[in-house]
Amino acid sequence: xxxxxxxxxxxxxxxTIILGDFIWLGFITKNFLIREFGQxxxxxxxxxxxxxxxxxxxxxxxxxxxxxxxxxxxxYASSHLSALGYGAxxxxxxxxxxxxxxxxxxxxxxxxxxxxDIAWGxxxxxxxxxxxxxxxxxx
Length: 139
Description:
By secondary structure, the chain is mostly helical. The chain has helices at 2-28, 30-37, 53-73, 80-105, 111-136. The N and C termini lie close together (11 Å).
């Protein structure tokens, strides 16, 4: 029963973050991504961005687990505001490290994308941390 009380909320939070990123990649930033990365973007025959599903799902699974372990279970999140803040800061730093490293040596890595991706990751992970904190007491 204890294991189930951990797995069910993790799956719910995971589904939420996947849905948010699907909307972000598939609809909100689709044309921006294609414009910024051109031939580097893998497209389906219908023009939608081809997601390499296992890599995408794995990345978000790691992110949800990191938020859960280091923000929620660690006790850093002691209020709604601290959950939002720590989740946002954690991913501001993580996304900045990733995107700025790519900008350092990947030819044609987009500066505009760098800022958009950092902002998106910060917002999404801050909100998901807030949601985790708000709902974790029910599980």
